Amino acid sequence: MMEMDARTRARYEAWKRRKILKRTVTMGALSLILLVGLAFGLASCGRDSENGEYENGDSYTENTTDISYDDTTEEPEPEETEELTEIEPEETEELTEPEPTEIEREAVVFCGLANPDDAIMLSDEEALSYLALVNRCYRVSSEFEPGDLSAVDVESVNTNWGSHLLRESAARALEEMFQAAAAEGLVLLARNGHRPHERQVMFHNNAIASWGLEEARRVSAVPGHSEHQLGLAMDITAHSIDARLIEAFAETPEGIWVNQNAHRFGFIISYPYGREEDTGFIYEPWHIRFVGVEVATEMFNSGQILEEFLWYNN
Predict the structure, then answer these.
(1) Looking at the DSSP assignment, which residues form a beta bridge with residue 165?
(2) Other C-beta atoms within 10 Å of 42: how many?
(3) What are the φ and ψ backbone dihedral angles of 150, each rounded to 5 degrees?
(4) Both ends of the chain: CA-CA distance in Å?
(5) What does the alpha-carbon distance between residue 49 and residue 52 come to, in Å, rounded to a whole number?
(6) Helix H segments across the chain?
(7) Which of 269, 278, 140 is nearest to 218 (CA)?
(8) What is the 8-class DSSP label of residue 293?
(9) What does the alpha-carbon distance between residue 190 and residue 155 come to, in Å, rounded to a whole number?
(10) 120 by DSSP, 3-state: which?
(11) In the chain, what are the domain boundaries?
(12) DSSP code, position 228
């Protein structure tokens, strides 16, 4: 190469310096750009989850599109939809509960018109029941007599044969009933209690002699058919009717009280008013018979006679 002169060399050195300066400035500018970009990147990575950070640390880039939101923006109207009509239920046949009907019961067979000569005889064991039934269909033997007869300690009349007797439970119940009546100022009188077969024969024969056979059977039991022989029946009366056994007893204060309270002590009125055709006996408000408190109360509340109670309760 040809050796340059001093002027040329000077020009060459000046150009060289300008070139180096230009490169330096360029490199400096690039370095500055890189530093700014790096700083921006580090700042982006440091944002929290509200600025785009996921829980696992991954980040996402926000959409920087400028979108403004108006709080008063109206909600879009719903699209028109086909109107649905309620389907009417099909008509169904109305079901109605059947009205309750009373339990059909077989009619009671009463013995009021039966012939006592055809009656069935109860065993002695059956006759000892407090519910033993003696009427024109059933009777007891001439030898039957309860073994637990007891004197009744109450005010009495017609004691030609000694104290009036009843079976033990009936005797004590009658005493309680008389005491309860006395507590209300009423005096009851006992007139006829247990009556053995032979005495019933005498009573019945006297009735036949006075009124004839058919009428006698309405007012006096045929021997063997009397509740008095069971030791469960008592005829009661009051001083106001001279201690007689007559229908008027029902109208006395004593008779009214007995009618309304006898069941509380286990007694029933065996031959009530209006039931002669069923029982075979005239109305006897004075004749009470022991069956026990539970049965007597049920019969009193239902208006039954013993034949009906036994029929419906086997």
Answers:
(1) 151
(2) 9
(3) -140, 145
(4) 156
(5) 5
(6) 6-45, 124-127, 168-183, 197-211, 213-219, 253-261, 276-279, 293-302, 306-312
(7) 278
(8) H
(9) 6
(10) strand
(11) 116-312
(12) T
For the residues of 157-177, what is the DSSP string, one character each? S--TTSS-EEEHHHHHHHHHH
DSSP string of 50-80, one letter each residue: GGTB-TTS-B-PPP-------TTPPPPPPPP
Q: Is 97 a catalytic residue?
A: no
Look-up of token digits 């000077």: 10
Residue 224's nearest CA partner among 286, 144, 118 is 144
Q: How far apart are CA 291 and CA 167, in angstroms?
A: 11
- DSSP state at residue 53: B
Catalytic residue among 284, 294, 298, 307, which? 284
Q: What is the pLDDT along the chain (314 residues), one digit of tens a residue?
A: 444 456 555 665 665 666 566 666 567 666 677 766 666 655 555 544 444 433 333 333 333 333 333 344 444 454 554 554 555 555 555 555 555 455 567 889 899 999 999 999 999 999 999 999 999 999 999 999 999 999 999 999 988 888 999 999 999 999 999 999 999 999 999 999 999 999 999 999 999 999 999 999 999 999 999 999 999 999 999 999 999 999 999 999 999 999 999 999 999 999 999 999 999 999 999 999 999 999 999 999 999 999 999 999 97
Tell me the fold of 116-312.
Answer: Muramoyl-pentapeptide Carboxypeptidase; domain 2 (3.30.1380)
Tokens of 113: 């018109």
